[in-house]
Amino acid sequence: MSDIEIAQQAKMLPIIGLAVDKLGIPAEQLEPYSHYKAKVSLEYIDNLADQQDGKLILVTAVSPTPAGEGKTTTTVGLGDAMNRLGKNTMMCLREPSLGPCFGMKGGAAGGGYSQVVPMEDINLHFTGDFHAIGVAHNLLSALIDNHINHGNALSIDSRRIKWKRVVDMNDRALRQITVGQGGSANGYLREDGYDIVVASEVMAILCLATSRADLKERLGRIIVAYKTDKVTPVYARDLNAQGAMAALLKDAIKPNLVQTLENNLAIIHGGPFANIAHGCNTVTATKTALKLADYAITEAGFGADLGAEKFIDIKCRMSGLKPSAVVLVATVRALKSHGGVAIEDLNNENLQAVEAGFVNLERHLNNITQHYGLPCVVCINHFTFDTEAEIALIIEKCAALETKCVVSKHWAEGGGGAEDLAKEVLAIVDQREPGCTYVYDDKLPLWEKITAVATKIYGAENVTASPKVKAEIEALQEQYGHFPICIAKTQMSFSTNPAAIGAPTGHTVEITEARLANGAGFIVLIAGNMMTMPGLPKVPAAERIDITDAGVITGLF
Prior knowledge:
Elements: H1 3-8, H2 15-23, E1 30-32, E2 38-40, H3 42-46, E3 55-61, H4 71-84, E4 89-93, H5 98-101, E5 110-111, E6 114-117, H6 119-123, H7 129-149, E7 156-161, E8 165-167, E9 177-179, E10 190-192, E11 194-196, H8 201-208, H9 212-220, E12 223-227, E13 233-235, H10 242-248, E14 256-260, E15 265-268, H11 283-292, E16 295-303, H12 304-319, E17 325-330, H13 332-338, H14 351-371, E18 376-381, H15 388-400, E19 404-408, H16 410-413, H17 419-429, H18 446-457, E20 462-465, H19 467-480, E21 485-488, E22 508-517, E23 522-527, E24 546-547, E25 553-554
Parallel strand pairs: 3-16, 3-17, 4-15, 4-16, 8-11, 17-18, 18-19, 20-22, 21-23
Antiparallel strand pairs: 1-2, 2-14, 5-6, 6-14, 7-12, 9-10, 12-13, 14-15, 22-23, 24-25
């Protein structure tokens, strides 16, 4: 059966009763969104502050390939397996974006028998969080143009407006637009553009905010433009925008509670992409899971060079979170893809390609252990086409690196297929004090932080930027040099060239743009030709998604 067919046959339990029975959350502290989704009140979360934290486990992956890796699937399967072993475990996932659901991915709620449900709801609108983020973002956009239209008392330079609009869809035609056409009644004619919602600073702020007050303060310090003197910033608070924006996010800030196919509880909250944003679910979600369970398993987006690096250097640095171990997900098919095999040939045994592609896994593994300072278990997410010889080769090569490597069959068997993986992970986290190391020090200049990530994590030889971009970074250094950095880079490669598979070295990382995310508290650096508004593929997933006369959704994978 397809993923959606499996999900539609799930025997879900009412979420309120499940949360009361398994977690002891009072029913009045839960806000139901239909029978199987609920939000947890912030007041209840605040009351958990004195409870001891559980252990935090991060799931990441090798560099993505068209073959698929299964990071969310592994997170769910591992969580179900640990619960099967009698360990009180919760999973913390990111919310899927409509853009990739209708684009390449067709869904992002796990797969096979390791899924979170209700799968269709999670992939399509869910509890409206992304809608609220998009509306809050675009409210600020409207207030900027409205202020200029009504006299521009703040002296906003319309050529130096930094705040684009957003939409939760892959729509390349909106990357660069002109607004205000049709005469003065429609505002001031100027160039503008759209990003996808997951790249919005509002998304990043929601994911890092620790309270309503913190949310509102962060929204207020967003820099939207500069004045005509070219140096004085204009903040969202100058437009009195933060209160209304926070009001629109009043429910979005509350974590969402759902269940797995095995009726274990999971939190899904927030969803910035790791290639163009910081790639982690909310701090509130992760900290709540750590209070409610003895073990919390969370995922970071895309490969470990992106999601895991930003999880450590941004999320953990800002929040004080301390992971205990990492699971690095790979598939035989993905390694063969990194070894140069075409997608139509990936199901054929090819030990030479596995050997060649293993360098990608090895680079990620070394980064995790050496630069993030964390122990790691390699998980081979099993496919039926994998051969014993291919699997044996990967296990042998991991053993040579003194790393445990476990074949996990959670896609086909649910939590029961991931129990060996769970045992290896538990053997590490139960014997280790939580903690990690950062790739760079706060006190380093911004350019040296960029260089540290590029050379240590990406394997680059150097970093370049045009004189204009270099000057922008130097200007940011004066006031914001202590901020962490968030490099927006292709997820397909360690380099900025998506076609450079494996583990390229000696390449140059070109920084083409620098953006200050003052409310979020980091600097976004665009590397290469990375777009913060993706486009749809030639045959988008939207073409196969449908609904029957009975209201049953089909085609979500």
